[in-house]
């Protein structure tokens, strides 16, 4: 499930920087943004979305190192890690109680303009923490690109057939990033459907450790699906899932809201999730998450892995599960 979470996030970053129509081709020279995305996911404890950072951040969600994650736990981990990632500058919203609140999302995505001194200080701090040559494209004011994750329970022990049509409808939306889920003992990244079968990518392949080369590029073959995706009957799906959507601009989110109202909410007697305009009054007040303060020393900012407490050994000595995190393209 950690790898599946990486897959969904990597697809969001591709949509963010390269566009949804971008496709990977073997031996073709790729833009610098592509290589920067890959470097975010390398199996090193100092990379923002490495499996080390995700596993360690899961400790705060009550999951010990090595303990299995569910879709909701992975969503919460991505939400926290994104706070430290100023280059991609994503707003990650994870719905509560099967409810998406439009007011809260817009409050989170519309970031106020920063003064030049604050922006300069923040940019310097980020470069110190994450290494040289990292510009901070995400510091400009305006709408922050949205990664929307909706954890759901679509049944008790098995998926309730009443949800199937709405579940498939989500894959048709132009904002869709697929879904996290699986079946007992197996986590998959679902990217579409064909009839009553779901199409998915399977992370259960052991591959050798990959690191960046001297020129900053990455041997990227293992980060992509080299064979046809798998299929499974939708009724075999575990009822615990998490839907993912990416909205680069506010108009994308407004369009998504319209599609949800038209294709899912108005046609379903038993709704898969709720979409409401205002923050429910009986909920605690919504406070947009912010990055914790980073203390500095004479040598500069505290590195991200130290800040998060990731005191793991070198991943170069390990064999890891698949790095196929960008397999959608």
TrEMBL record:
One Gene Ontology CC term in the entry: cytoplasm
Localisation: Cytoplasm
GO MF, one example: protein-phosphatidylethanolamide deconjugating activity
Reaction equation(s) it catalyzes: [protein]-C-terminal L-amino acid-glycyl-phosphatidylethanolamide + H2O = [protein]-C-terminal L-amino acid-glycine + a 1,2-diacyl-sn-glycero-3-phosphoethanolamine
Pfam families reported in the protein's UniProt record: Peptidase_C54
Keywords: Autophagy, Cytoplasm, Hydrolase, Lipid metabolism, Protease, Protein transport, Thiol protease, Transport, Ubl conjugation pathway
Alphabetical list of InterPro entries matching this protein: Papain-like_cys_pep_sf, Peptidase_C54, Peptidase_C54_cat
GO BP of this protein: aggrephagy; autophagosome assembly; lipid metabolic process; mitophagy; piecemeal microautophagy of the nucleus; protein processing; protein transport
Keyword Protease: yes
E.C. number: 3.4.22.-
SUPFAM superfamilies reported in the protein's UniProt record: Cysteine proteinases
Stated family: Belongs to the peptidase C54 family.
Known function: Cysteine protease that plays a key role in autophagy by mediating both proteolytic activation and delipidation of ATG8 family proteins.
Name of the protein in question: Cysteine protease
Gene: ATG4A
């Amino acid at each position: 499930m950690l790898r599946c979470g990486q897959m969904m996030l990597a697809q969001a970053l591709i949509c963010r920087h390269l566009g949804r129509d971008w496709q990977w081709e073997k031996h073709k020279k790729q833009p610098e943004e592509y290589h920067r995305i890959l470097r975010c996911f390398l199996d090193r404890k100092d990379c923002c979305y490495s499996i080390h950072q995700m596993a360690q951040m899961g400790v705060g969600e009550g999951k010990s190192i090595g303990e299995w994650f569910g879709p909701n736990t992975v969503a919460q981990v991505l939400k926290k890690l994104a706070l430290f990632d100023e280059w991609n500058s994503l707003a990650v919203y994870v719905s509560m109680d099967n409810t998406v609140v439009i007011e809260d999302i817009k409050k989170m995505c519309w970031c106020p303009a920063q003064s030049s001194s604050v922006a300069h200080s923040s940019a310097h701090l980020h470069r110190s923490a994450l290494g040289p040559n990292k510009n901070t494209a995400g510091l400009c004011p305006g709408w922050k690109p949205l990664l929307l994750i909706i954890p759901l329970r679509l049944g008790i022990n098995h998926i309730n057939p009443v949800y199937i049509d709405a579940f498939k409808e989500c894959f048709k939306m132009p904002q869709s990033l697929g879904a996290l889920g699986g079946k007992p003992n197996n986590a998959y990244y679902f990217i579409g459907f064909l009839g009553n079968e779901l199409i998915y990518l399977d992370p259960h392949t052991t591959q050798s450790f990959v690191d960046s080369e001297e020129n900053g590029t990455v041997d990227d073959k293992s980060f992509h699906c080299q064979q046809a995706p798998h299929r499974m009957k939708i009724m075999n799906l575990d009822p615990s899932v998490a839907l993912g959507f990416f909205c680069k601009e506010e108009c994308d989110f407004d369009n998504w809201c319209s599609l949800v109202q038209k294709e899912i909410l108005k046609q379903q007697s038993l709704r898969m999730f709720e979409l409401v305009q205002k923050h429910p009054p009986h909920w605690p007040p919504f406070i947009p998450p912010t990055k914790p303060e980073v203390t500095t020393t004479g040598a500069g900012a505290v590195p991200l892995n130290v800040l998060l407490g990731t005191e793991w050994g070198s991943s170069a000595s390990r064999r890891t599960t698949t790095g196929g995190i960008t397999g959608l393209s």
